[in-house]
Amino acid sequence: MKSVVSDFEYFVPKTVEEALKLLSQYEEEECKVIAGGQSLIILMKQRLLTPKYLIDIKGLSDLDYIKLDEKEGLKIGALTTHRAIEKSPVIQKGFSVLSEMEQNVSSVETRNWGTIGGNVAHGDPSGDPAPVLIALNAKLKMTSLSGERTLDAEDFTLDYFETALRHDELLTEIQVPTLPPNTGVKFTKFSQIVGDYAIASVGVLITLDKNKETCSDARIALGAVDIAPMRAKKAEDVLKGEKISNDLLAEAGQVASEEASPTTDVEASEEYKRDLVKVLVRRVGSEALARAKKA
Ligand SMILES: Cc1cc2nc3c(=O)[nH]c(=O)nc-3n(C[C@H](O)[C@H](O)[C@H](O)COP(=O)(O)OP(=O)(O)OC[C@H]3O[C@@H](n4cnc5c(N)ncnc54)[C@H](O)[C@@H]3O)c2cc1C
Questions:
Q1: Where are the domains of the chain?
Q2: DSSP string of 239-283, one letter each residue
Q3: How many angstroms separate the alpha carbon of residue 63 from the centre of ligand 1?
Q4: Is domain 183-294 classified as CATH 1.10.3720.10?
Q5: Mean per-residue pLDDT of the chain
Q6: pLDDT at position 65 over 70
Q7: Ligand 1 neighbours (beta carbon < 6 A)
């Protein structure tokens, strides 16, 4: 009987360097890295991917950590599971939006196996972590045998399931800067079933001035409404330097819905998704504002 996935040679490197050496030995088309396997195995079962060589990095404990440094901010190793982020007291206290986002990524089973690095490296425009990381102004660290480089989270995903990662690189760390004072962040995804992939998602960060009256900075990130997670920069400009009111948030929502480029699919029409962006930016923005006032 034919197996569901095609045959492959399986490697379990013990160190990051060993994994990088293996990656550099094989051509892109014949070799894949596997972390939690929650996305990759599906593609292999569907035979959309038939790698000859599979490099299993899940056991590389050097890439499984959550560290907080007062100056440098939060650092999350790429192999940290969704569940570990959801349950981390450090994240719940200082970056609660990340923990809240993780609560609705699929089921506990998937969250126990799937890693944040695997999620981001998968490059799914509907993935939940990316818009939150973009709103938080996070950077992603990539490592190859020739060294390290970092990219802003907003520049990482280039197209549907296509990222800036080179074939010889591993995504190794997610770096989230310390939040400025008077800052609130909120994320919401809209899906048909709780825990399902987003039809549209929105992350908003608002920083208020020292009197907590005017908006000194705003970042608005959208998921599932373009070829990649995106920033709605024109909508951000509507809020920056202004005293934020409900009307202004509604205007930012309208502008964001025009910046998005959703497509009609089995779940919703383009018009419906634009409307979702409009409503979600207003609601999520209002909650981010309330958090900024309390911060
Ligand atoms: C039923 C189901 C529902 C889901 N629902 C959601 C959802 O609602 N929201 C959501 O965001 N996600 C969802 N997911 C995806 C899930 O979050 C996965 O955890 C995630 O997409 C992949 O993580 P992983 O560690 O399993 O990666 P894998 O499946 O092992 O790998 C995914 C891709 O990333 C590459 N890769 C993995 N790690 C690295 C690395 N460190 N460096 C370089 N490349 C790497 C692999 O080569 C592969 O191309 C769902 C998955 C399932 C099965």
A1: 9-56, 61-176, 183-294
A2: HTTSB--HHHHHHHHHHHHHH------SS--HHHHHHHHHHHHHH
A3: 16
A4: no
A5: 97
A6: yes
A7: 32-40, 78, 82, 105-106, 110, 113-115, 117-119, 121-122, 127-128, 165, 170-171, 195-197
